[in-house]
Amino acid sequence: xxxxxxxxNYIMRCPRYSKRTPVKSVRTKWGSSSGKLVLGQKSLTITxxxxxxxxxxxxxxxxxxxxxxxxxxxxxxQKMVELQKIQxxxxxxxxxxxxIQSIQEKLNVSEFIPTTDVSYLSEQDYALLESGSNNP
Length: 136
Description:
single chain, mainly alpha
């Protein structure tokens, strides 16, 4: 035990260390004298928790946007199926309206008289006016 007391006495008598001038701590809260960032345990814990909460929040926002887009896709696919059914119905309706039987029924309802004696004109039956003749 004597050795330790003598070493302590030697340190106390050392010219660099004086009892009159207390040793000051140069350590700062956010940095050290070398310029590197030094974080305490509390600030490191708070920083990590903040990063964790930010990551969880960002993840929840991504999930929310994906779910809402999924619902939009489902709604649009249902609308597409309904529109395809309507298109098929309208195509059938257009085919029915353009059929010969439908046209004949409409003509009968409109009281048109069917013609039986039809004669068409041929090219010789009507006169053509030649560009060089001056006949009135």
